[in-house]
Amino acid sequence: MSLASRLAQQLDGVQITIIDNRTQHYYQPGFTLIGAGIKTADYVVSQTASYIPAGVKWVQEKVQEIDPESNKVVTGSGQVVPYDFLFVATGLELDYEQIQGMDASLIGKHGIGSIYNGPEAASATWQLLSGFSESGGRGVLPALTQR
Ligand SMILES: Cc1cc2nc3c(=O)[nH]c(=O)nc-3n(C[C@H](O)[C@H](O)[C@H](O)COP(=O)(O)OP(=O)(O)OC[C@H]3O[C@@H](n4cnc5c(N)ncnc54)[C@H](O)[C@@H]3O)c2cc1C
User: Fold this and answer.
1) If you ran DSSP here, which 8-state letter would residue 51 be given?
2) What's the CA gap between 46 and 77, in Å, rounded?
3) Quick one: DSSP state of residue 50?
4) Residue 141 — φ and ψ, nearest 5°?
5) 2-138: which CATH architecture?
6) What is the pLDDT of residues 12-65, one digit of tens each?
7) Strand ranges across the sheet with 72-75
8) Residue nearest atom 44 of ligand 1, based on CA coordinates
9) For ligand 1, atom 6: residue with the closest CA
């Protein structure tokens, strides 16, 4: 988004296209504030549409395939988008399942917290932390309280 904005300001006579299927924009640094109970989950969520720079085309789809030999990308619906220059900025995808015994649905349960999976996970982490401080761990960490 930042790159598209800078290029749109500096270049004349070009067509800039952003391809991203996500309509909600997450202010990721704010996840820490949700996890600390300072902000609620909706604080970090806004609409991608409000950040698309003027003159930039937004294709609301996922890229399925990149064909660097014929300079084109293909979207999930099969739309072919040709390009002269392609910038790939897909962020990262978290794979909690790679941790043995873990999956994202466990966040907020059994003493497991993680703010990185999104606003709801950050909020569940705060619920867990505040519950822990209220209970002193009783019922949250049974193994510890039995000692
Ligand atoms: C808790 C936390 C705190 C942070 N604090 C800071 C901070 O204080 N300062 C700072 O500078 N940075 C901070 N960061 C890092 C910063 O938020 C990220 O570096 C930044 O958001 C990455 O931007 P990006 O565009 O590379 O990826 P993202 O913002 O993740 O965007 C990637 C986009 O690619 C799209 N996408 C993925 N695959 C496809 C596909 N196949 N087709 C189409 N679209 C696709 C996604 O839908 C997404 O919209 C923080 C991050 C976290 C999680």
Assistant:
1) G
2) 25
3) G
4) -125, 75
5) 3-Layer(bba) Sandwich (3.50)
6) 999 999 999 999 999 999 999 999 999 999 999 999 999 999 999 999 999 999
7) 63-67, 72-75, 80-82
8) 20
9) 29
Q: Which DSSP string do the residues of 82-126 spell out, in sequence order?
A: E-SS----------GGGSTT--GGGTTSTT---STT-HHHHHHHH
Q: How confident is the model at residue 84 (pLDDT cuts 50, 70, 90)?
A: very high
Contacts of 108 (CB under 8 A, 6+ apart): 121, 124, 125, 127, 128
Domain spans, the chain: 2-138
**pLDDT value for 144:** 52
**Token reading at 138:** 């009783």
Question: Contacts for 127-135 with beta carbons within 8 Å, 24 or more apart?
Answer: 129/35, 129/37, 130/37
- pTM of the shown model: 0.86
> Which residues pair with residue 63 across a beta bridge?
75
Mutate to test the pocket of ligand 1, among 65, 90, 126 (most ligand atoms within 8 A of CB): 90
> Residue 143's pLDDT is what?
54
What is the per-residue pLDDT across 104-147, written as a single tens digit (0 to 9) for each?
999 999 999 999 999 999 999 999 999 988 888 776 555 555 54
